[in-house]
Fold this sequence. Notes:
The structure holds two protein chains of two kinds.
Chain A: E1 3-8, H1 17-26, H2 32-36, E2 47-51, E3 54-58, H3 67-71, E4 77-79, E5 85-87, H4 97-101, E6 108-109, E7 118-119, H5 125-129, H6 135-139, E8 145-149, H7 150-163, E9 183-186, H8 206-213, H9 216-248
Parallel strand pairs in A: 1-9
Antiparallel strand pairs in A: 1-8, 2-3, 4-5, 6-7
Chain B: H1 9-36, H2 47-59, H3 62-72, H4 82-103, H5 112-115, H6 122-149, H7 152-160, H8 162-182, H9 200-226, H10 233-260, H11 272-290, H12 294-298, H13 300-330, H14 338-361, H15 368-374, H16 377-387
Helix pairs in contact in B: 1-14, 2-4, 2-13, 2-14, 3-4, 3-8, 3-9, 4-6, 4-14, 6-7, 6-8, 8-9, 9-10, 9-13, 10-11, 11-13
Amino acid sequence: MAKAILYDSTLCVGCRACEEACAKKWGNPYDDKIAEQEQISARKLTAVQTHGDKFSRRLCMHCEAPTCVSVCPVGALEKTALGPVIYDADKCMGCRYCMVACPFQVPTYEWDAMVPRMRKCDMCFERQSKGLPTACTEACPTGATICGERDAMIAEARKRLAEKPGEYHPAIYGMNEVGGTSVLMLSAVPFEQLGLRTDLPRAPLPQLTWDVLSHLPDVVVLGSVLLGGVWWITHRREEVALAEAARSVPQTKPSGEGSSK
Amino acid sequence: MKRFVPKTFWQWVFALIMTGGAYATVVRVLYGLGGATNLTDKFPWGIWIGFDILCGVGLAAGGFTLAATVHIFNLKKYKPIVRPAILTAFLGYLLVIVALMFDLGKPYNIWHPLIMWNPHSVMFEVGWCVTLYTTVLSLEFAPVVCERFGWRLPLKWLHKVEIPLIIVGILLSTLHQSSLGTLYVIMPEKLYPLWYSPLLPVLFFVSAVTVGLAMTIFESWHSSRAFGRQLELPLLQGMARVLAVLLSFYLVMRFLDLLQRDALRLLRVPRTETYLFALEIALLLLPAMLLFREHVRRSPAALYACAVMVVFGFITNRLNVSLTGMEAGSGARYIPKWTEIMVTLSIIALGFFIFRTAVKHLPIFTSEEENHTHAPQFASVPVMAGRK
């Protein structure tokens, strides 16, 4: 069963306990100065953002059909059955296509490292494999971040929307965005006011390139037949023309086969 | 040591660029991508991808275009310019690989796509095609080296596989020239609508063929001046006519696509994207219109100017797709660092230098005596035809 995170912005008080727990889990440094950074980076895989009196969280959305997994030329990224999208730094060659392609601009890079890696939240894949909640969920004092089965999280989100319709913007972010994500968000205000993109297509993005790539075998087959055919026709035409020219002036035709070799 | 002291103006330019490039390389190696580039998490691809890869591969498209013209469509009169086109392509691809070594975070893993497959990735397909096509190009270029050193046996073998090799080369080129456009098809939310289109693969392919022809005209003109050869003017005129038709075809397709996606209304918005789009179109539209006039095609200078415009129009297009068009959607500004520019300039300079050296020492531009050795073939062909 696939896991998911539900983040409810209306319950978030901006204490940044999730940031600290995340930094500890990854062995990243964390202090007041780092806490002030509201953007995710290679050393800060989740960030709490302030939007007036509202807060929002940035982290990998763990798409159901992840663009990063589809674009990685070496298969360094993988959507696990458990839900998290995980990364294998040993396979990675550092082309950074995942970063360019991610609709949420989540992957970050160790720009100054000699052996750089892409960095992003892995939804605590190892902890969740052992049945533990994610580090951010465990640290959250208000229950703004919870985790569990995706279906259960959707049910919980729907329950909250139904119980307190006045307090929520009536939608779940991540239900349909680029085919759905494993991180779901609730908010009191329209999502774009929390810095989330609401112009994303509902269909999974990998389908766009697969529609092109799946036609390539046809191009190869048709192309080879076509090129071979054109080559045969143009050269045959030349042979015929030369043969006819030779027939019209027979006296110049060499008599023996040997002379042609 | 005395031999390496630059003498002429261009030698000085070359020496300066290469020194700068060497220093930038040291910065890249010692301080990583962070120290050598202005790339950020929100803007991870700069001119090393936008120019060195996207333009580099496109500008090398003359190789497969001319190979197809001469060997598949059997238009023999273009034979004298096949070799320079193949040399450009071979050099182009080798330099693209050099550029990639700068851009990859872990360049020593460059071979990973060959064993770690992901057929859903456009980049995986591009990687394979470029690897295979560079191999094909080395074999298409090998006869030149064999002729130079008089190695007859490999020459015979290479001649036997020539046609299949050329067909494979055309197919591989078609695939990856278009796939460089497909790379961006997955980012509808990032690429500005003046450039984003599901048709990007087709547009990239057609524009690559177009610029391949323009590059061939450009090279012929330059090498005729550098080596005091006569310009193959009748040939170039023929090519220029095809170039005009292809350019028009490309522009019509481009505008129909914009019209169909209702993107033309964006031209009323005064912003950088609009101006650079206008520049790109102007640099392609002007030569398209000029080259339809016969007196323009007859003048070597005008012909050259048109080819240069097409090359710059093409470069503008690729930079617009990879840089201009990506800024707004990514919420980032990108201006390349001097190290990025130095590396790119060095790669271009290296290309010019190797091309010049190769032309000087290898039989690239078919010589007079070679035409004589081909002449007796005509006597034997009728017999061969009759035998079939």
